[in-house]
Structure formats: structure tokens, C-alpha cells
Amino acid sequence: MKNIKRIGFLLVLAMIFSAATQQVYAEKTYVIGEHMAPVTKPDPASTYVGSEKCKICHSDKYNDWRTSGHPYKLNTPAEAQAFNSPAIPAPEGYTYNDFYLVIGGWTWKARFLDNNGYIITKTGPGKDINGSNQYLLATKKWADYSAGQTKKFDCGNCHTTGYSLTGSQDNKPGIVGTWEEKSVGCEACHGPGSVHVAKGGGKGVGILKNDSAALCGACHTRGADDTKIMSKDGFIEHHEQYPEFLNSPHKELSCVSCHDPHKGTRVGQTNPTAGASIKAQCSTCHPKQNNDFTGSTMQKAGIKCTDCHMPAAGKSAVGDAASFKGDVKTHIFKINTDINAKFFDDTGKFANGYVTLDRACLNCHNDKDKAWAGQYAKGIHKFVKAETTATQSETPVSTSVSTQKAPGFELLFAIGALLIVALARRR
Ligand code: HEC
Ligand code: HEC
Ligand code: HEC
Ligand code: HEC
Ligand code: HEC
Ligand code: HEC
Ligand code: HEC
Ligand code: HEC
Q1: What's this model's pTM, rounded to 2 decimal places?
Q2: Residue 360, number of CB atoms within 10 A of its CB
Q3: Distance between Cα 280 and ligand 7 center (Å)
Q4: 184 Cβ closer than 6 Å to some ligand 2 atom
Q5: What is the DSSP pairing of strand 229-232 with strand 151-152?
Q6: Hey, how many other C-beta atoms are within 10 angstroms of the C-beta on 27?
Q7: Which residues contact 192 (CB under 8 A, 6 or more apart)?
Q8: Which residues contact 160 (CB under 8 A, 6 or more apart)?
Q9: Which pLDDT tens digit goes with each residue over 357-412?
Q10: Distance from the CA of 409 to the center of ligand 4, in angstroms?
């Protein structure tokens, strides 16, 4: 993995000498995922000051950011206990006094660093049992991560701000490199801000505003080759959003076309609102499909665009491959309705770049198969289950309506709907 990254790094270096790829290089110099500190400083004299300094003048952005997952990537034991209620338990054999830092624990899972900075991989009363060292938030269970190995924390490039490969943070032997601030702070995306702060702020004054997808792609990728969607054990690997996006019909857009980068999308410990960061909904840009879908059988059953177009085809912590249910939503978006289309290539190591009907449909319709889904997939937006075509083996639909609309049907339906609403209100 690291070797691949180094090769990638050399390739990027080679590109510098090619005038034709100046643009690519300009984006790639800011790649945190390549073990490189951001070279693109807003000002040659800029140094890191920390997110707390930005709060003074940008309290709105600061408060939004505090509710998102980015500030909770690396936490002191006290912080990890404070934002999780009840606190995540310590692995067997340990107490919170035995941790230098807790990795994550905001959304999917938590891993723990011992007081020498190594990732804890042995647990149990004698700290000699391999594994059970990774806590899964969704199931409240323990899982194995690099069980029993001596595992240094070399993750600072994406989990910290102002990362440098030199030295070891707090002189901890298990830590590779040093950082200016834990977690993904303001300056991870805006560059070091000392000059901006010293000059009293201002647009374009000693600060970067980069709205390219490549900025997010520095961390939301596994780094080897951004055109390939890395996969494992029947799932897309976690933090592959950038490669997925580059394979999607949205590749001409940016992450921030849909996301407010300061707000969280996941419901996490500090963000109660699902999708809070989504500033442009699917319906904003696809009004036709939204119109078609409105009133369909599934829309009435509460199904959303994202249920089919962004199924959880990726896995970070918990997944059931047999029923196509992971825990990271895909950013591939495009659905291939061919029932023979395969989600992965023959090696299983890469996804093909489209959502297949098993992922799009069968994680809900788990008693059906792709051939069944294929009958309906084309034109599914407008699909209204017709009473006349319903077979006895199918469960009756309470919202079923006739596709052969008789004159006056709309009026009758509207009156019926009003009656239902009125009845529901009285309950
Ligand atoms: C002393 C007050 C002050 C502090 C401290 C401050 N800023 Fe600003 N910042 C400003 C002002 C004023 C603007 C201009 C706002 C405008 O014109 O809309 C600005 C603009 C920005 C912009 C937009 C730049 C652009 O070109 O559009 C960013 C990004 C930004 N600040 C980030 C930060 C970060 C990150 C920090 C902490 C390292 C920080 N600021 C600290 C006052 C401050
Ligand atoms: C994950 C990356 C990321 C982090 C972390 C981040 N920002 Fe931003 N910020 C952006 C991007 C990208 C934009 C440009 C947004 C756009 O174009 O829609 C932006 C825009 C801004 C702006 C300009 C807003 C405007 O209306 O023009 C300010 C000010 C700002 N950020 C301040 C902050 C502060 C303060 C923090 C920390 C509390 C912070 N940002 C953390 C990515 C980030
Ligand atoms: C190339 C960037 C990158 C590197 C390197 C990286 N991570 Fe991450 N990690 C992410 C991103 C992005 C996410 C969240 C998005 C996702 O998982 O799809 C994440 C999520 C996590 C989470 C879940 C956080 C939570 O709150 O649920 C844990 C735990 C974690 N990483 C641990 C590690 C450890 C340990 C290492 C080093 C061995 C590491 N990561 C290396 C980018 C990275
Ligand atoms: C310096 C590395 C880094 C950069 C740059 C970065 N991210 Fe992240 N991102 C992470 C990590 C690590 C996590 C896992 C945080 C967690 O859940 O604990 C994460 C989590 C997220 C999440 C899920 C958690 C939540 O708050 O809902 C979203 C959404 C997200 N990032 C969007 C973005 C966008 C959009 C950008 C670009 C504007 C971006 N990220 C840039 C590292 C990064
Ligand atoms: C900011 C605008 C924007 C938003 C928000 C947006 N899209 Fe798109 N979408 C586009 C553009 C632009 C294209 C490419 C042009 C096209 O094919 O219409 C596209 C293409 C697509 C395609 C492929 C179209 C085709 O003809 O094959 C799908 C599927 C899609 N989007 C689904 C979604 C879903 C689902 C959502 C919500 C999660 C969404 N989009 C949100 C702008 C947007
Ligand atoms: C029940 C699953 C499902 C839901 C829900 C759904 N779609 Fe689709 N969508 C599909 C399928 C399947 C296709 C492929 C159709 C084809 O190729 O004929 C598709 C195709 C599309 C396309 C490509 C262009 C087209 O019309 O074929 C866009 C854009 C799109 N959907 C947007 C949306 C939006 C926006 C929503 C929510 C308002 C939505 N979809 C809800 C399954 C769904
Ligand atoms: C077309 C709109 C769109 C674009 C472009 C987009 N996202 Fe998202 N993203 C979404 C939506 C919608 C969700 C799910 C919101 C929800 O769960 O309600 C999401 C969720 C996420 C999540 C959380 C995943 C999960 O399982 O909940 C991460 C991380 C993320 N996006 C990162 C990114 C990054 C990085 C990029 C750019 C490479 C990006 N997104 C581009 C619409 C978009
Ligand atoms: C998030 C869950 C979910 C997803 C994903 C989903 N559906 Fe549905 N679907 C439902 C629900 C709920 C109903 C309504 C059940 C009822 O009332 O009969 C339904 C109803 C249907 C019906 C009519 C009822 C029947 O069984 O004949 C068809 C056909 C259908 N879906 C096809 C699809 C196809 C094709 C896809 C993928 C493109 C898909 N669905 C994706 C949940 C889902």
C-alpha cells in the first residue's frame, strides 16, 4: 500500500516536468493523502494557528464544523468520553487511562492508541489475546483490526492537520510523524492561517478557498489510483468517495456542489440531523425525475432517491455481503439496469463504476432477485403498482392505485386522500 503510494508520488513528481499537466500538478501538490504537507501555502510566511483562532471571527463556520465528523478524527480520552454518551467502552483489559488518543468513534468505529502511541491490537485480562480491539458503533460489538500485530499510527496524513513525516508527535515511539492540530481542522482545507489572522482576515488575504473535488479527494480516497474504486470482501472499501465520484455522472461537479463542507452528513454523536450538509438535493438538479417519482408506489412508501442511487455499497464497520448491506453510501449514482451487469471486476478488488440492481433494489426486496428487479427497473420512477397486475403471491399495497386512470379519478383520489388525512388527524 505504502509502496503504491510512493510510486504514485514519483508519478506526480514526473508530472511536474510536463507542461501539459501543470493543472493536475497544481491540484496534486495539496495531496495530504500522499504523506505531503500542503505545499500550497496561502502566503510564504504562513504557519498553523489552530481552529480555535478562526472561531473569533468565523463563529458560524466554527459552530457548523463542530457538529460535523471532521473535528473528531483523533480525540483525547476525555474528548472521546465527552462526545459519546454513553462513552464507548475501553477494550477488555484497558481503562481510559491507558490511552494516548482514541481514533474516530464518531460514526462508524473506534480504535485506540496506547500510551506509547501504538494502535492497541491485543486485548483481554492479560492483554495477550489477539484482536477484539475495534469498537463498532452500530452493533456495539468488538471486531478484529490488525489483530496481534505491532501497529504504528501512520494515519496522520488524513486524520490530522499540518501533518509532517518528520519525528514523532509528543515523542511517542508508536507515532509516525507530527501534526499541528489533531483531526481535520479549518487549516486542513484552507491552508495555514497565521498571515490571514495577523492581517485581520479578508477575502483572498493569506487564506485558500479551494472548492475542487480534489481537495476532499486528498483524504476521501485510498490513494493508489483515483480512477479505480478499491473494493474488498463484497464491498467498496471505506473512504473511496473520490474515486467513486470520478466514475460517476457527477464528475464535472464538485463535492461542494452538494455538500456544505462545514456541516456533517452522517448522523453522528454531535450531529442529530441526517444529511444536514446537503445544500443541493437531487430534486434541485433533476426536477424531471423528481416529478416522475412523485406519486409512485415507492415514493409513497417513503423511499428516497438516495435509497436506490446511493445504496450502502461500501463498508467501514458493519456489513452483510449476502444481502448487499454495508454502511457507507456509494457516490457512483448511475444505475445499470442490465441484469447481467456485475458490480465488481473479476478480481473483486475494484468496483465497475455503476450501481447494479442487486445493490439498488435487493437490499430492500431481499426475497427477490435481479431478474425480478430487471422487469421493473426501466421506468421505475413512474412505477405505480397496478391493481390489475398484482399477483396473489405479492403482498397487497395499501397505496396501490390503478394505472388505467378513469375520468375523474384524480378528483376521487384527492377526496380519498383528504379523508385519510382527516381520519389520521383524529387519532
Ligand atoms: C480577525 C478576524 C478573522 C480571523 C481570526 C480569521 N478570519 Fe477568515 N476572514 C475574515 C474576514 C473579515 C474575511 C472576509 C469575509 C468577507 O469579506 O466576506 C475572511 C475570509 C475568510 C475566508 C474566505 C476567503 C476568500 O478568499 O473568500 C476563509 C476561507 C477564511 N476567512 C478562513 C479563515 C480561517 C481558516 C481562519 C483561522 C485560521 C480565519 N479565517 C481566521 C476574518 C478573520
Ligand atoms: C473539509 C474541508 C473544510 C474544512 C475542515 C473547513 N472548510 Fe471552510 N470552506 C471549505 C470549502 C471547500 C469552502 C468553499 C465552499 C464553497 O465554495 O461552497 C469553504 C469556505 C469557507 C469560508 C468562505 C465562505 C464564503 O461564504 O465564501 C470561510 C469563512 C470558511 N470556509 C471558514 C472555515 C473555518 C473557520 C473552518 C474551521 C472552523 C473551516 N472553514 C473548515 C472547506 C473546509
Ligand atoms: C487517505 C486518507 C486516510 C488514511 C491514510 C487513513 N484514514 Fe481513516 N478515514 C479516512 C476517511 C476519509 C474516513 C471517513 C470516510 C469513510 O470512512 O468513508 C476515515 C474513517 C476512519 C475511522 C472511522 C471514524 C469514525 O468516527 O467512525 C477510523 C477508526 C479510521 N479511519 C482509522 C484509521 C487508521 C487507524 C488509519 C491508519 C492505519 C487510517 N484511518 C488511515 C481517511 C483516511
Ligand atoms: C484532511 C483529510 C480530509 C479532508 C481534506 C476532507 N475530509 Fe472529510 N473526512 C475525513 C475523515 C478522516 C473523516 C471521518 C470523520 C469521522 O466520521 O469521524 C471524514 C468524514 C467526512 C464526512 C462524514 C462525516 C460527517 O460529518 O457527516 C463527510 C460528509 C465528509 N468528510 C465530507 C468532506 C468534504 C465534502 C470534503 C472537502 C470539502 C472533505 N470531507 C475533506 C478526512 C478529510
Ligand atoms: C448540483 C446539481 C446536481 C445535484 C444536486 C444532483 N445531480 Fe445528478 N446530475 C447532475 C448533472 C449536471 C449530471 C450530468 C448531466 C446529466 O446527465 O444530466 C447528473 C447526472 C446524474 C445521473 C446520470 C444521468 C444519466 O442520464 O445517466 C444520475 C443517475 C443522477 N445524476 C442522480 C442524482 C441523484 C440520485 C442525486 C441526489 C443524491 C443527484 N443526481 C444530485 C447534477 C446534479
Ligand atoms: C426505486 C429506485 C429508484 C429511486 C427511488 C429513484 N431512482 Fe432514479 N433511477 C432508478 C433506475 C433503476 C434508473 C435507471 C433507469 C434506466 O436506465 O432506464 C434511474 C435513473 C435515473 C436518472 C438517469 C436519467 C433517467 O431518467 O433515466 C436520474 C437523473 C435519476 N434516476 C434521478 C433520480 C432522482 C432525482 C430520484 C428521486 C426524486 C430518483 N432517481 C429516484 C432507480 C431509482
Ligand atoms: C450529487 C451530490 C453529491 C456529490 C457531488 C457528493 N456527495 Fe457526498 N453525499 C451526498 C448525499 C446525498 C449523501 C448522503 C446524505 C444522507 O445520508 O442523507 C452524501 C454522503 C457523503 C458521505 C457520508 C457517507 C455515508 O455513508 O453517509 C461522505 C463521506 C461524502 N458524502 C463525501 C463526499 C465527497 C468526498 C465528495 C466528492 C468527492 C462527495 N461527497 C460528493 C451527495 C453528494
Ligand atoms: C429502500 C428500500 C427499497 C429499495 C432500495 C427499492 N424498493 Fe421497491 N419497494 C419498497 C417498498 C417499501 C415498496 C412498497 C411495498 C408495497 O407497498 O408493496 C416497494 C415497492 C416496489 C414494487 C411494487 C410492489 C411489488 O412488490 O411488486 C416494485 C415493482 C419495486 N418496488 C421495485 C423496485 C426496484 C426495481 C428497485 C430498484 C431499482 C427497488 N424497488 C428498490 C422498498 C424499496
Answers
A1: 0.90
A2: 26
A3: 11
A4: yes
A5: unpaired
A6: 16
A7: 38, 41, 42, 46, 47, 48, 49, 162, 180
A8: 73, 74, 179, 180, 181, 182, 183, 184, 188
A9: 999 999 999 999 999 999 999 999 999 876 544 443 344 333 333 333 333 344 44
A10: 49
